[in-house]
Design goal:
Distance between the termini: 55 Å
Helix content: 40-55%
Order of helices and strands: HEHEHEHEHEHEEEEHHHEE
Structural class: alpha/beta
Strand content: 15-25%
Strand order of the largest sheet: 2-1-3-4-5
Number of helices: 9
Length: 255
């Protein structure tokens, strides 16, 4: 990272963006977990430019405790930590019932390592070295997809067949049965439901749901489509369809 330049770019970019707030009007809470103090200091400074409240931790066990007490709205989590790794931290945070969006930091560039974090329940990742401006943009995207942001649609309830999605409450029902989704799963389903009977390519989904080009790694779309299918279509007539060589489409189940 060219740290000073990136910090200036991140602060300049944030000045042009509307400030994000929690539903109750208080500052967004971010937890940054990394054992490199220089990096955590810079990330904290960049996020405070956003108007966010920031806490940090240098070890996994400390991060779990801070997450329990601080109840962050987003977590930046290094994969490699001195005591327990970031995947274990995420598992314990999820076991505590927190569905907080998590962005992984990793020094590894292998696809398997990236997929491992997403499969474990993470929502995004960046590979070191990275741009602070890009990281802040991705975190803003995760926050926008969370319940902190009120949907701007005229009608917050989207219905396709027997599937209903409420953009305000983030509730999803299939034939009256409640379905629990993560923030990323919810955003993916919303995009599919806002475009019923339309084939959406992996590139379109990457751009809309993750708000950036995922390095051409379309496998992340396949992973999250499989997650949705297990929750939306399991034991029911399928609504999510693969159009070979073209993408995915959602339509009412055939009777």
């Amino acid at each position: 990272m060219t740290l000073n330049r990136d910090l200036l770019a991140a602060s300049s970019s944030s000045a042009k963006q509307p400030k994000l707030r929690r539903a109750d009007g208080t500052a967004v809470r971010a937890l940054v977990v990394d054992d490199e103090s220089t990096l955590t200091d810079l990330l904290s400074m960049a996020l405070r430019y956003e108007g966010w409240e920031v806490r940090t931790a240098a070890e996994g066990r400390a991060a779990i405790q801070v997450a329990r007490e601080f109840r962050p709205d987003v977590i930046v989590l290094d994969v490699m930590l001195p005591d327990i790794d970031g995947l274990q931290v995420l598992q314990r945070v999820r076991n505590d019932g927190q569905e907080t969006p998590v962005l992984f930091l990793t020094a590894k560039d292998a696809l398997d390592d990236r997929i491992a974090g997403l499969t474990a329940g993470g929502d995004d990742y960046v590979t070191k070295p990275f741009s602070l401006e890009e990281l802040v943009a991705r975190l803003r995207g995760l926050i926008r997809r969370s319940t902190l942001v009120v949907a701007d649609a005229d009608d917050p309830v989207v219905t396709v067949g027997d599937l209903q999605l409420d953009e305000d409450s983030h509730e999803v029902f299939r034939d009256g049965e409640s379905i629990e989704l993560t923030a990323t799963e919810f955003e993916l389903l919303r995009y599919l439901m806002r475009n019923p009977r339309r084939v959406l390519s992996k590139a379109q989904i990457l751009d809309r749901v993750w708000s950036y080009d995922f390095g051409g790694k379309s496998s992340v779309v396949e992973i999250y489509i499989s997650y949705l299918r297990k929750k939306i279509d399991a034991g029911r007539a399928p609504m999510i369809h693969t159009v070979r060589g073209a993408g995915y489409m959602l339509k009412p189940a055939s009777l």
